[in-house]
Amino acid sequence: MRALEVVRPGPLALVQDLGRPGYAHLGVPPSGALDVPALRLANRLVGNDEDAAGVECLFGGLELRATTSCTIAVTGPAVEVEVDGRAVGSHAPVWLAAGQALAIGAPATGLRCYLAVSGGIAIDAELGSRSRDVLSGIGPAPLKTGDVLPLGTPSPLGGADVVLPTVAPASLVVPIDPGPRAHWFEDLAAGLAKTWRVTAESNRVGLRLDGPALTREGEHAGRELPSEGLLTGAVQVPPNGLPVVFLADHPTTGGYPVAAVVRRASLPALAQARPGTLLRFHSSTRVWNR
């Protein structure tokens, strides 16, 4: 059997592919890798299709043992990768012999690393995806010591060679567009353009921010809102005025006003934003109050 055995899972290691979009009408979020380009790249390095399932590991610490020869690659932020205690580096394909152990360290910047292995992780899919959804509990449970991850059949074509890692910055400028409830807030564009700090309460459901609270317009102060549909990247503002940016495991509906929406191209950067990262929102449009 081609497989990887979990020796040590680290803080949180989840099987993820590109998710299960199209089920919002059933209350199921899209889920999938938060840093989609990183998972796609890891799969290309080992010769997989880009949507093959890999492992998303939070702040490293993952150790696996191969039961068969295979090729692996680790992407995301630059991180130390070792095979049987020998440094091999990230962002390059690495061959493992049967019995060899792979260990991923903690990245110096960023938050989430992605491990791909030739053939992909071939666990059973749920609703067309092998991704773990931490909000609903759909998909395989977080990895734990002793788990065995079956692998699919590797491609005979091989993968890419070496790519350069990205560096997760200590501060971000995030492009946004007005949300459906932008007019509920006083001088919203200026408020969102102030400096926010990512908090430790952030997770795959949403990025929670701390900073100068946003204020509702008088007629909307204290107003209740029926649940509305939510998109990945929606910037929802609860009564405390502190925004939450919804990520891949977000609920499909919500009852707080959505003030803005993060453009999809910026979502991978948010996936790598550690607690303490500084963030400002920026919009190129002046259509904020209607």
TrEMBL record:
InterPro entries from the UniProt entry: CT_A_B, Cyclophilin-like_dom_sf, PxpC
Annotated Gene3D superfamilies: Cyclophilin-like
Source species of the chain: Amycolatopsis speibonae
Residue span, Carboxyltransferase domain: 25-290
Signal sequence segment: none
Name of the protein described by the UniProt record: Biotin-dependent carboxyltransferase family protein
SUPFAM superfamilies assigned to the protein according to its UniProt record, in alphabetical order: Cyclophilin-like
Keywords on record: ATP-binding, Hydrolase, Nucleotide-binding
